[in-house]
Amino acid sequence: MRRDLLHRGLLVGGGAAVGAGASEAWWLTRRRRLPIAGGPASATLGNGQQDVGSGALEVVWSGRTDQRVVALTFDDGPAPQWTPMVLDTLAEHQVPATFFMVGTQVRRHADVVRDRLAGHEVGSHSWAHRDLAELDAAEAYDDLRRSHDAIAELTGEPPVLFRPPYGHLGGAVLHAAARLNYRLVLWSLQMVEGTFPDDPVGHARRMVAEVRPGTIVLGHDVGTRQRLVALRGLTDMINGLRSHGYTFVTVSSLLGVGVAPTSTG
């Protein structure tokens, strides 16, 4: 029996050694294939003190509330294509929204939104809508910094919210966002334009049925023509949600501690 126990001990010890060796081999192999330290997968940069702003990063999909409040968000603009139409509709119904803007679009089309953003909020959606989850830490930060500066120049206020293109997250994205003290905002409900071709009323009805207290809705004010289904039905969506007792707020109002929802009529 003692011999049997010794044999088992050797197997366990040998297994641990083999496991440690396998782990080290995996690390060395992966390190050659992918720059782990400072690469897309890593949420740390180098071995020194991490320069990450406040030292924390909040990632949100929706607001934690039982109040009937909802935040409309629009990605990828601004552009002459549909951004003015969205702003006109929101102004007509006195609805605030959050626009996650692309830095290159801001530089190219600032005049489309200049002096039209009162009551709205602007967050960053990257510099050129690249997949930031594929970039290393330095590239991701450079991308976000350029967009940050462009938005600050447009609005007079540095953005505090960031939404990554495609909703893709990598360690380098998190590190870059933390350096800029962003709140990282995803969404809990997306407009589904392709499901309702040429049926803006049907699309609006579907969205109203799925909204819950604290929902962050993802829409777009730039893109393919099928997205017009959602934008043309925006008035129906707003009226439908109001008929269910919903109030519209910006994302920061939705997420702010102790911040009461802004009345929009």
From TrEMBL:
InterPro entries: Glyco_hydro/deAcase_b/a-brl (IPR011330), NODB_dom (IPR002509), Polysacc_deacetylase_ArnD (IPR050248). Pfam families: Polysacc_deac_1. It comes from the Bacteria. Gene3D superfamilies: Glycoside hydrolase/deacetylase. Residues 68-249 form the NodB homology domain. GO terms for biological process: carbohydrate metabolic process. This is Polysaccharide deacetylase family protein.
